[in-house]
Fold each of these.
Amino acid sequence: MSARLIDGKAIAGEIREEIRRGTRELAERGVTPGLAVVLVGDDPASQIYVRNKARACEELGFYSEVHRLPKETPQDELLELISRLNAKSEVHGILVQSPLPDHIREKAVIDAIAVHKDVDGFHPVNVGNLVIGDDALLSCTPAGIIEMLKRSGIPIAGRHAVVIGRSNIVGKPAAMLLLREHATVTVCHSKTADLPDVVRQADIVVAAVGRPKLVKADWIKPGAAVIDVGINRLPDGKLCGDVDFEAVREVAGWITPVPGGVGPMTITMLMANTLKAARRAAGLA
Ligand code: GUN
């Protein structure tokens, strides 16, 4: 039997409607959610991401500003800009697009962003609050994954979730969020012995390694939910995920396509985080 598709675009659309409602409520108090995006250098993919973020702001009626800095910008200058944005009341969220040029230390940049404006959820205080279960701005892709599971009616509590990949941006926070939802969580990585055997035990698989079609059909327990975070460009120019989609969909119970799965959720959760930061700034819960 073929798996049910988890339509990231449709779920993201649903969440955007909720964000619009929240934005109207804030407007009654004279507050417009504001996002500042900073791009250093001219990486073509980053330029597209930044443009999409500005467009999402426009569509949702957010205030936005984009700062495009030359790739040789000294780190101190970038930190000064962040400091100004931290102090600017119209800006509720700050995102510095990765990757950064080699001479800039990413950690110094993340640490410089005010915790309450860290809409990427990368600041150590937000990561720490996620781990101990306190209120935090959550990393966007993992937060999107949880929304997709919940809104598709996929049970998490008591289920075995296997996360493939241990990045700070996706794997680790996804594992923590699944744990917070009471899953039993296993995190796999490049040194994991018998990866297929571990994945076979999963009710929920999250693949976030950036290796095209790594996850095969015979790794999947029949009926499992498979969330594919990978976006890989094949030699023929087509996009594919970390999951062998056509084969795995015949075994899984649910599956996210690439594109149109996790991708549309990430930017939507960024907007949700910006609204949350604006609500907090306005004294709303
Ligand atoms: N580059 C690719 N994805 C991301 C992201 O989620 N946040 C930031 N800041 N940069 C990125």
Amino acid sequence: MTQWIDVAAEADLFEGAGIAVTPEGQDIAVFKLEDGVYAINNLCSHGNAKLCDGFVEGHHVECPFHQALFSLHDGSVSCGPATEPAKTWPVKIEGGRVFLQLA
Ligand code: FES
């Protein structure tokens, strides 16, 4: 069964910025872009940096430590030094709330 977890109010999101949410003890960054809302592992795959603090460029987030670029659409790395992709989760907005599918 598909389980959606309520993680935030849609009103908490601002376009071009990320927030950190911690459903079930996981550390996840949620970003609002022009084309939708995306969830990506908050910890950079290269080091101890929080992607929720990163700079948004199009549909990418730039790690605040060494400027690796991750696609918010699928977590892929577009620019190093990171080499490992970041995990992403499906997101849906319903009734003004943001839900993630964690499984
Ligand atoms: Fe993110 Fe190095 S910690 S690029």
